[in-house]
Amino acid sequence: MKKTSYFLSFEISYKRSIQETNKTELRKYLQQTQQQLISSISHLATNLIISLRYIYDPTQSPKLKTYLLINRPHNTRIAEDSEQILSLLTKGKLSQFFTLTPQPNLTPFQNLDWVQTIGEILKHEEFIPPQNYYLPHLFEANQTNDMSAVCDVIHRLDSKLILEITLQTYHNPTQKSLWVNAINQMLAQLDKVNANTSGIKDNILSVTSALYQKYQQSYPNSDLFQYSIKALAENRADAFPVLDTLIHEAIKETPHGKRCRIIQVSKNQPGFSESLEATKNVDISSAIEWEGWHKNNSEISIANAIQPQKKGLGKFGGDSGSLPDKPSFYPENQPPMIGGVNSEQNQNLPQLYNAVSDGSGLVKLSATPPASRMVDLKPLHRLATVQEISGFFRIAVPQEISIENMTEKSLPVANSEDLFNYYKSLLEQDSETYRDCYIVGINDEGNPVISSWAETPHRLVAGLTGAGKTNFLNWVIFQFLYANPTGKIYIADFAGVDFNFLAKHFLDNVEIITTVEECQKLVEKIHTDEYQRRIELLKQAEVHNIQELREEGVEIQRTLWIIDEAADIALAPSKLKETIQTRLIEYARKGRKCGLHVIYCTQRPSTAIITPQVLESCEEKVVFRVSLAASEAIIESSQAAKISKESRGRAVLMLVGGDENNYVNTPYIRVPVGKKVLVEDTLWRYLATKS
């Protein structure tokens, strides 16, 4: 990555407020806040680059994540500007709605070997013959864009994609003087053309004049951004529908009807490598551009390119589209023209040209002007005011869920980072309301579902392969260790592969066995070292439970015993099966008091594996997709069998004594995988920090 003064990266997550009442007003205020953010950024620093990125990976959960990246060239005041930017993002109005979590790992933004095509949105620009008018259209921002339609399209993709909206505060005085003078000359020349139309209305001339009047009125004295709006796709066909939807959502139709163009390039095509490097470096590239600029007329001076129709005898000297050798208002003996432009004058534009507007938007020349070229107007298609670009630079606002019209495709997605960051205080509390709790997931209204170890000591977790059972266990283990940093977890992992990372990174907390033979010894060890020891401590302190024991000054944390996969227990010798069932029944009566908890798991639930004794011992049941027979046997309904294969992580939560079985959407939690996925890339980094 190229050298920069600093590079900041944040993952953005929405702060869902249960207290929200007026959703319409809330969303309107949030949209206004985002526009104000762009305006504030434009005043912060010269050449500041800020990039909003939606990164989609269908193999991950959640599939779509949002990031904000900031890059600052090294030739500016680093410390002061950095503090202002951080304060604006983390303490300003935006922080009311979004949590910005710093991202130390830059790999997701730089490992882009998978990108096969890049599509880019540019202002629609065109040369209109025969007068050769050049029109770089303006954006007309749609301030109600909440990115929901764009995110819907992205979620329907089957391959990776990055949607990137990157802005750089514009500060280029030399270039600016060129296009300011070119705008003025274009208006003067259009005025001259209009004077020769003999009163005949020319709609194209009117549109062109009105457009340049807007540029003249707003661009010279406004805060401007250079922009880059692009999609980097693994599948070439995916970039266009995403960008096309963004165009429809982010801007309004213009009177001329041509709003934007989408240009796509694939690997090995001109502009691809430069654009890809710009994304890696959090920079803006203009390598992808409209092919019209490769035409010869782009280098011609505006006065030569745009001529009024000849009148009188002059019209017999050639057709109306021909170009004269020299514009009528150029002085004699001027330096030779190179490529249609006086290069000597063009180098001294700010000194030689003085344009005065008469209030009509058309410019009168107060001195001999230098010959601006058509290409001097080219920067306009890469520039935008705060108002123009505000429709594109939008952080997605989650759509509210309609319970009456709920379908599985519209279910809320539980994000482990969001849930943990927003509700982790509950894991640290020890009140009567939230005592030794953990977050199961979110319900179909998007609200958190909380469970308590103190109230419900043992759990049954069931689900077919791929339904989300193992991921849920990792989610529970993570929260358990966060709330109990020195607590012990014993795992009977008969598959032998699902929890290896725990043994590697959290050796002091986790003990894993992988065979039925080892399980016999583990059962006895847990009974002696954990259960009986804790019961004795309760007796000695003359207290009733682990909470009261802590209040007596005894440092003790909860212990978790996970049995996965229970089907192997069913095939074990009868003595072992009887021992485990006996222990479960015993722990069911006293586990709550002494802080010993069991999670009994199976992929293939049946009456042979889950006996009535086990079912009675587990007062909480989390049932992912299972067969109809298993669903009816465990929760006495067909709910779990109705969960679709696509709804990974969705389960039925049944509490003994509860009125009904409710669906819960459990979050995906990424785990360390060798050298490919490091601890610091995952939520588990919080455990390393805590320990």
Shape: elongated
Task: Report the major sheet.
Answer: 9 strands, antiparallel
- Percent of residues in helices comes to 25-40%
Instruction: Give the class from helix and strand content and strand pairing.
Output: alpha+beta
Strand content: 15-25%
Low-confidence blocks of residues = 1-5, 17-21, 312-366, 399-409
N- and C-termini, Cα separation: 33 Å
Number of strands: 23
> How many DSSP helices?
22
How large is the radius of gyration?
Answer: 33 Å
- Tell me, rounded to a whole number, the average pLDDT: 79
Write the layout of secondary structure elements.
Blueprint: E1 6-14, H1 23-44, E2 49-56, E3 64-72, H2 78-91, E4 98-102, H3 107-110, E5 117-123, E6 125-128, E7 133-136, H4 148-155, E8 161-169, H5 173-195, H6 203-218, E9 224-233, H7 236-250, E10 260-266, H8 272-280, H9 302-305, H10 343-346, H11 349-352, E11 355-357, E12 363-365, E13 383-385, H12 386-389, H13 416-428, E14 437-442, E15 448-452, E16 459-462, H14 469-483, E17 488-493, H15 500-505, E18 510-513, H16 516-541, H17 546-551, E19 559-564, H18 566-570, H19 574-594, E20 596-602, H20 612-617, E21 620-623, H21 628-635, E22 650-655, E23 662-665, H22 685-690
Helix pairs in contact: 1-2, 4-7, 5-6, 16-19
